Amino acid sequence: MLSSSPRLASVLTLALVASSSLLGCAYKSSYRQTNFDVKTQPVPQDKVKVVKSKDDLTSAYTEIGTYVGRAPTVKEAIDVAKNQCGREGAELYVLNVEPYESAGAWKVDGACAVFSAEPAADAK
Question: Domains of the chain by range and CATH?
Fold first, then answer.
């Protein structure tokens, strides 16, 4: 019985490491600032508006950064994106593509942006 204890400990350690690495892979994010001229203040996550596509915007906007991330659910992926964009001072998270599932995680890709003072080029 004592001889199986080290083996059991090894198996449990391996299982713990494997589950930790799987959990660690579920969440991943990357923010890159793209506009250093616009000065912003943090925006609460619940005030950041998610837009499906830049074509859906009727107001002019200025990109301040890009955010790419993944999470176990689409809601978590969007919430983390809104949180990161808000911390950077963005009012918008404009999706480049719709959220999609890959390798067991939901992925988002978009731009963090603020509304601009100028009217949109295609606004009537």
Answer: 26-115 (3.30.1660)
